[in-house]
Amino acid sequence: PDRTIMSSAQYDWLTSGLAGSQAYWKVLGNQVMFTPVTVTPVDTTFLFSKLGPIYTAIIRPQIPTLQDVFELAFLGDVWSNYPAQRSALVNAIKTEQIARTVVVTGDFHTSFAFDGQWPSGPNNFVEFMTPSISAANFDENLSSVPAIAPIAPFLIETIDTTLRQLNPHMKFNELNSHGYMILDLTKQRAQNDWYFVDTILAHIKGERWVRGYTTNGNGLLSLAASEAPGKTKQDTPAPPDPPTPTSVTEEPIGDVVLLGFGPNPVTTSLYVSYTSASVVDVTVDIVDGAGKIVHRTAPSPSFIGLNSYMLDVRSLPNGAYFASFHIGSTNVTIPLVINR
């Protein structure tokens, strides 16, 4: 219950911003699936009817493992892992009577539309989730495993069937296609449209509108008869410089925050993600176990907000090192193992 996906500073900023906003529509840009879903129990009756007797005999003993795989896919990195903070945010939206709220979500690589009629009770917001443009989704991930590649289409159909049976608040899902979505807002309604391409393995110019849903802000969804019309005048793009970064931790935020790095051990390149509050140069010293600098990079620019840095270690032999990142006046040192 104590786990949080946001720090208290971030949560207070979000809830106070929602409560004080004069915007007609409130759009929450969100990183992982917000709506609760369940995939337990998996619809084995449907699965076995698709597999036939031979594959059924092979798969039947693996159903507990298959159930674990499905649960990991849908419960591994979602708001359901932070139930107390999600409940607090939902209650804040209700208590403050924040109308016309739409949650837009990425990360899951697949398309979903959820209304606000959760099993725990009705809400006056909806959630739309965008597919990936090229990152692997369910069919590619399952098909990449040789042991289950022949039955991957049946597994995906089973996931679809299970989701529809157990989650009546899910109005649309598509686990295989790549594309994008567009949210169109007017005084009358919010409409989200999904556009897919037929393949990402060739350069194509065409795309197709697949589905659209509208809401008037009451937490319900209606199927759109056609895609929303395009704008005659496009909005002003977002400002180039993001606000000062915040953190999910409760500690004060410095000028530089290390977000993550990997892979480690590394074979060719280490990728490092961090935020910076100012425009500064970054250099890296790689130090061996004796404290000797064995490699130093040339300065490269670091920008305000999120940064990614690729450290090429192909010139160094296997061994244990430390990589010291000098980002402006801030020094960050991480352990590094090279193993080929």
Describe this structure in words.
With 340 residues, the chain is an alpha+beta fold. The protein has 2 domains: 8-223, Purple Acid Phosphatase, chain A, domain 2 (4-Layer Sandwich); 256-338, Sandwich (Immunoglobulin-like), CATH 2.60.40. It is 22% helix and 32% strand. The chain is built from 6 helices and 19 strands. It has helices at residues 8-20, 44-59, 63-75, 83-95, 138-143, 152-166, and strands at 26-30, 101-105, 111-114, 117-118, 121-122, 125-129, 170-174, 178-185, 190-197, 208-215, 222-223, 256-262, 269-276, 280-287, 293-296, 300-302, 305-312, 319-327, 330-338. The strands form 5 sheets. Strands 1-2-6-3-7 form a 5-stranded mixed β-sheet. Strands 14, 15, 16, 18 and 19 form a 5-stranded antiparallel β-sheet that branches. Strand 12 and strand 13 (269-276) form a beta hairpin. Helix 2 (44-59) runs antiparallel to helix 6. The longest helix has 16 residues, at 44-59. It is globular, with a radius of gyration of 24 Å. The mean pLDDT is 90.
What labels describe this entry?
single chain; 340 residues; alpha+beta; Purple Acid Phosphatase, chain A, domain 2; Immunoglobulin-like; 6 helices
